[in-house]
Amino acid sequence: MHVETAASYIHSHAFLGDSHDAHERRTRWVVALTAAMMLVEIVAGWITGSMALLADGMHMATHAGALGVAAMAYAFARRHAHDRRFVFGTGKVGDLAGFASALVLAMIAFGIGIESFWRLLTPKTVAYTEALWIAGLGLVVNLVSAWLLAGGHHDHHGHDHHHDHEHGGHHDNNLRSAYFHVLADALTSVLAIAALLAGRFLGWAWMDAAIGIVGATVIARWSWGLLRDTGAVLVDASLNPGLEAEIRAAIEDGDARVTDLHVWRVGPGRYASIVSLIAADPLSPSAYADRITVHEELVHVTVEPHRCEGHHAPRLRAA
Fold first, then answer.
1. Which of 212, 234, 256 is the last residue of a domain?
2. Range of the domain at 131
3. Which one of 17, 41, 114, 302 is most buried, by most CB atoms within 10 A?
4. How far is the C-alpha of 227 from the C-alpha of 222, rounded, in Å?
5. Residues of the chain with pLDDT under 50
6. Residue 40: Cβ within 10 Å count
7. What pLDDT digit, counting tens, does each position of 101-122 carry?
């Protein structure tokens, strides 16, 4: 007779993304590039008097900090992936870092917008030629950084499951926040170059500040989207109606009816679920769990079957 031990039912709660280590390495490289270019742009912006260039450098400084947080979040999640203090693992650490980064993006947008507005009212002399060289170098660094992060960002999209109907369900929001920070840097670099060219060749000194306001508006929009998506994950919002519908369809095959269903994200592309059901003659919890776990993104499932005649069946767990 085969006897199963309790250990055979114990499973891991390490719900990290499929490319966690690769994303961590990419993010570290981008942090180093961003920090180096940050110093160059701030010094050059101060010397040349370019608001667009100085704003780009300060913007990059806050991004360097936010990207550093993203890199630390990857390291923390990896080191504590099996720490039992984290009940459902450390898969949400990246979402927490992404939320913090989104707040930084919002503050950046506000700061650039205010400073650019004041520069519209009180224009200053800009050393256009020198500023253009530095802004061009900044754009190159930003494009290289975006390329590094885009590999993991788009590869991750390629593994999306067909019933991912929610916002950010399979996204690694930590990588996504880093990617948005780099895109924001690239945007401000492009806008800075456009403003400097307009000032240098057309005499439109006001463009330097006006472009700053445009950049601030775009960055604020990105920030809001990231805040919305990461915040929803952190508060365990129900984000995947397609997966919920498939769970109901799998359970309600016969006389069973789902009375309570909870599905929430515990990591990039990883979900946990609690299902309560009633049936005249309920199957074992493991039988219902087997129907549900054909969906590979469901990594932690609890099933509570009850008899509908009013008898209270004991609450059993199946993972």
1. 234
2. 11-234
3. 41
4. 9
5. 1-10, 15, 152-169, 311-319
6. 15
7. 888 888 888 887 887 888 778 7
Q: What is the pLDDT of residue 278?
A: 92
- Same structural domain, 58 and 193: yes
The owner of tokens 């590999």 is 151
pLDDT at 319 (0 to 100): 47
DSSP code string of 198-220? HHHHH--TTHHHHHHHHHHHHHH
pLDDT confidence of residue 257: 92
Q: Is residue 16 part of a domain?
A: yes
The two structure tokens encoding residue 66: 């936010």
Check residue 300 and give its pLDDT. 84
Distance CA(55)–CA(41), nearest Å, equals 9
The confidence score (pLDDT) of residue 277 equals 92
**Which long-range contacts link 43-46 to residues 24+ away (Cβ below 8 Å)?**
44/130, 44/131, 44/134, 45/131, 45/134
What is the longest distance spanned by two Cα atoms in the chain? 90
* Rounded distance between C-alpha atoms, residue 82 and residue 127, angstroms: 55
Nearest to 73 by CA among 112, 27, 113, 110: 27
First and final C-alpha spacing in the chain: 23
Residue type, 101: S
DSSP secondary structure letter of residue 261: E
Strands of the sheet containing 257-267, edge to edge, are 257-267, 270-279, 298-307
200/297 same-domain check: no
Q: Strand 270-279 to strand 298-307: parallel, antiparallel, or no bridges (unpaired)?
A: parallel
Q: Could you give the 3-state DSSP secondary structure of residue 160? A: coil
Q: Which residues contact 216 (CB under 8 A, 6 or more apart)?
A: 108, 109, 110, 112, 113, 116
Nearest to 130, CA basis, from 40, 64, 39, 35: 40
Task: Tell me, yes or no, whether 70 and 194 share the same domain.
Answer: yes
